[in-house]
Write a structure and sequence with these properties.
The complex is a heterodimer. By secondary structure, chain A is of the alpha/beta class. Chain A contains 15 helices and 8 strands. In chain A, helix 4 packs parallel to helix 5. The radius of gyration of chain A is 20 Å and the shape is globular. By secondary structure, chain B is α/β, with parallel strands linked by helices. Helices cover 55% and strands 10% of the residues of chain B. Chain B has helices at 2-19, 29-48, 60-65, 74-77, 83-93, 102-112, 130-143, 158-178, 186-210, 219-222, 235-254, 277-286, 298-301, 321-330, 338-351, 366-369, 372-383, 399-420; strands spanning 53-56, 69-71, 121-125, 146-150, 265-270, 288-294, 356-362, 387-392. Chain B has a 4-stranded parallel sheet with strand order 2-1-3-4, with helices on both faces. In chain B, strands 6-5-7-8 form a 4-stranded parallel sheet, with helices on both faces. In chain B, helix 3 links the parallel strand 1 (53-56) and strand 2 (69-71). In chain B, helix 2 (29-48) packs antiparallel against helix 11 (235-254) and helix 12 (277-286) runs parallel beside helix 18. Classes of the chains: A alpha/beta, B alpha/beta. The interface between A and B is large, with 45 and 43 residues.
């Protein structure tokens, strides 16, 4: 029993890895170990190459509170809230340990926050790349070449040569993370999943700020315990998938689950989209293998391939036996707003119930979300199976 | 119907110029309207004959070299007389966003209204300007039109040019396979690009003129974008117009004719021109010249970025025609990194003795709205000139919107004139 309690405490600690109190600790630890820390604003950043340079890739999380007094000097309130909250954190001096920042051309706003980031903080290292949103061999070749440029810049900056051996080592570590997270997600297919959706989001986002090898050790140790864990939810609770972007605060999932459902799957770039697809460890060249993985990972709403993105949601909804999908879109996410009529149409054709609920980046407005989720669950209860 | 309305409007404009010529405007504007008229009549005829249309936000020349008829999209949306009708289709009926750039929504509504041809193919670049490509995507997805993407890439250089050219080649191959009768003609593409380049050279000649005080161009004419010959049924006539435009500008400058009666202030205007005549009239009344209109293509068109057709300097080799298109594609500074946008602006303001800047921030335009502080700070720090953040729309819901916008602009102008002493 004592062991179980210790494991439960260890699980809670991992779930809280990306909380405001904890996320800096991993970066500061890396610094005290003599490693550089590189902030990432995009989940398409090929983390393996940064890791292979001996640095810590550290995903930027914005402030989770609603005070945006500093960032709004540079940014309009009606724009991507992740970008605004991330900039707020930077301007408040909460990321003074970052040695550099890497970002992509994800969308118009991401480019703008990167511009502002560089303008105000003048980091020692910066790199940008083209987020590979078109799935084609042409784009993959180009991404490979961009990765080669980033590797060269990182070598200059770190003074460490990024050899193929180092890259393959990094690939092994990262693939292990992906396999472990897939194992965790498989557990959610059970009729009574042993983890909540909020816990899972906490775990995945913890992996984005921790050294992956440390994370792997911790999750690997915990998985047997999680597999045997029993949560007190009823079997009648609807099974829900949550779809969003840059959602890194588990509080949102807690709010949804608090209304009487199980979030058993997600379509999140901080969740399933982050780790699905492995790098081919048997390929000849590590750079090409890494590039291939990032180019062909599950698609995001900013990409061109709306059909593929929605097909992916449908497949996941079926595989995880979801009763409905909640698109918890960030209010100022233009990609999702433009895609919405198409999503509504296609999920309707697939007979998968959907509700779309706006959210901010901080978890204010919880009552609104509760009301909407409650109405959706009521609707699901009346829907004949 | 939209196309008929445009024909009637342009016929009216040509008649008005003939009957009531206004000395402050360029005489060659009549030819411009005639070319526009010819283009709309051509579209109507091609539609009647069932010819294949294609829509693109960036590669019209390639599409035409394949035998498609070029169809306007955003530019057509700009010209609707009853925007509410098209908002209703896109926003109220289908649920597209109501807080994005209204140009992209109007264009989508028009496209889905049935008043314009349904093309066989739509092609959009990935960036810059997300709403524009999402609008195109939405139009294609809701009509079942073949949609192809072209990714503009983050880092500019030889690899970039090759990658875009590869994408163009893939697009051509796919279109040839998918649309009967479509066949790429490289010589046609070269011909169109050469015509565009010739027009561009004529326009570029006028940059030096814009340095003169008073500026010889009226505010309204400053906002007229360059006419790309490749987008018209008769490119040679458009080149003639570009030459006439340049010659007339020189003639006015030589005679000391200003674009406004008494020039009191020289302004650079950013991003998108104001919509509606009241703003132009205000600028003229106040004696405000606009020597520089800073839009996505301006830096290249006016030679602040030298990267022209056939130039072997930048890449150290001769580019093939598709790579030349890629090069052209890349000279657009719109919505790219902030330095691409602000560096040439600073140079133009310095060259053209600009007193103040108006940053026209269209609701929903993220590339400009979230760059405004850096733009204003750099202009202040590097040139000591003030910037007005002027929020506007293409279509205000009520007249009060335009009145308030103009009031804010007028106060800024008065302040700048007073400070100039």
């Amino acid at each position: 029993m004592a062991d179980m309690e210790a494991l439960e405490r260890e699980l809670v600690s991992l779930v809280q890895g990306n909380s405001p109190e904890n996320r800096r600790k991993f970066a500061l630890q890396a610094k005290s170990d003599g490693r550089k820390v590189i902030g990432l604003l995009c989940t398409y950043a090929p983390e393996e190459v940064i890791y292979a340079a001996g640095m810590l890739p550290w995903r930027v999380t914005g402030t989770w509170d609603s005070n945006l007094g500093k960032a709004t000097v540079y940014r309009d309130m009606d724009s991507c809230r992740y970008c605004t909250h991330a900039l707020e954190a930077l301007l408040r001096g909460q990321m003074e340990f970052l040695d550099g920042v890497v970002d992509s051309d994800w969308d118009d706003d991401r480019r703008r926050v990167f511009d502002t980031w560089v303008y105000v903080s003048k980091p020692a290292f910066t790199a940008t790349f083209t987020a590979p949103k078109s799935k084609s061999e042409i784009m993959e070749r180009y991404f490979c070449r961009e990765m080669a440029q980033i590797i060269s810049s990182l070598e200059d900056f770190s003074g460490t040569r990024i050899t193929n051996d180092r890259l393959w080592q990094a690939v092994k570590v990262y693939n292990k993370t992906r396999r472990l997270l897939l194992r965790l997600y498989e557990l959610r297919k059970r009729a009574a999943p042993p983890v909540t959706g909020a816990e899972v989001l906490g775990i995945v986002t913890a992996s984005t700020v921790m050294d992956k090898a440390d994370f792997n050790n911790r999750l690997e140790r915990l998985l047997p315990y999680i597999e045997s864990r029993v949560l007190p939810h009823t079997r009648a609770e609807p099974r829900i998938m949550v779809s969003s972007d840059m959602l890194d605060n588990p509080r949102f999932i807690e709010i949804i689950e608090g209304e009487g459902c199980k979030v058993v799957m997600d379509d999140l770039d901080t969740g399933s989209r982050y780790f699905h697809r492995l790098v081919d460890e048997n390929a000849d060249d590590p750079v090409s293998a890494i590039a291939h993985r990032y180019c062909w990972r599950p698609a995001d709403p900013v990409g061109f391939n709306w059909e593929e993105q929605i097909q992916q949601i449908i497949e996941w909804a079926r595989d995880w036996r979801c009763d409905g999908v909640i698109e918890l879109y960030e209010s100022f996410s233009p990609a999702r707003r433009w895609r919405a009529p198409f999503l509504v149409r296609e999920l309707g054709r697939a007979a998968i119930p959907l509700t779309r609920i706006a959210r901010g980046y901080d978890a204010g407005g919880a009552e609104q979300i509760k009301t909407r989720v409650g109405a959706f669950l009521e609707m699901l209860a009346k829907t004949p199976v | 119907m939209f196309l008929d309305e445009q024909v009637q409007k342009l016929q009216r404009r040509v008649r008005n110029i003939e009957q009531n010529p206004r000395p402050e405007f360029l005489k060659c504007t009549k030819l411009r309207y005639q070319l526009e008229l010819e283009r709309y009549l051509h579209v109507l005829e091609a539609w009647k004959q069932g010819k294949p249309f294609a829509v693109s936000d960036s590669i019209d020349s390639i599409l035409q070299a394949m035998g498609f008829e070029a169809q306007g999209y955003i530019a057509w949306g700009d010209r609707v007389s009853n925007p509410q009708k098209y908002y209703d289709i896109a926003i109220n009926k289908l649920g597209f966003p109501d807080q994005t750039c209204d140009r992209t929504i109007t264009a989508l509504g028009l496209f889905l209204s049935g008043e314009v041809p349904i093309p066989r193919l739509m092609a959009a670049r990935r960036i810059p300007c997300d709403p524009e490509r999402w609008s195109l995507m939405a139009a294609a997805k809701f009509t079942g039109v073949l949609f192809l993407e072209l990714a503009r890439l983050n880092n500019n250089g030889d690899e970039n040019i090759r990658c875009i050219a590869d994408q163009e080649a893939a697009l051509i191959e796919y279109a040839e396979k998918s649309v009967p009768g479509i066949k790429y003609d490289e010589s046609k593409l070269i011909e169109l690009m050469e015509a565009d380049q010739q027009s561009l050279y004529y326009l570029r000649d006028t940059y030096e003129l814009r340095k003169r005080v008073p500026c010889p161009i009226s505010p309204q004419d400053s906002f007229r974008l360059m006419t790309m010959p490749s987008r018209y049924p008769n490119p040679a006539r458009v080149v003639e117009y570009s030459k006439a435009y340049r010659d007339e500008m020189f003639e006015r400058a030589d005679k000391g004719i200003g674009g406004v009666r008494e020039e009191k202030l020289r302004i650079a205007w950013l991003a998108t021109g104001p919509y509606g005549r009241s703003t132009f009239d205000l600028l003229s009344k106040k004696g405000v010249s606009i020597p520089w209109f800073h839009y996505g293509r301006a830096a290249h068109y006016f030679g602040l970025i030298r990267d022209d057709l056939g130039d072997e300097g930048k890449y150290g080799r001769k580019l093939n025609p598709l790579e030349e298109m890629a090069r052209f594609f890349n000279t657009n500074t719109w919505a790219g990194p902030s330095t691409d946008w602000v560096d040439p602006l600073i140079k133009a303001c310095r060259d053209l003795k600009i007193d103040a800047v108006v940053d026209f921030l269209q609701v929903g335009c993220i590339p400009t709205i979230n760059l405004k502080r850096i733009t204003a700070q750099r202009l202040k720090e590097e040139l000591g000139i003030p910037t007005l953040d002027l929020e506007g729309r293409e279509h205000f819901a009520t007249e009060a919107g335009t009145i308030n916008m103009n009031k804010k602009l007028e106060e800024f102008i008065d302040m700048c004139i007073a400070n100039k002493g």
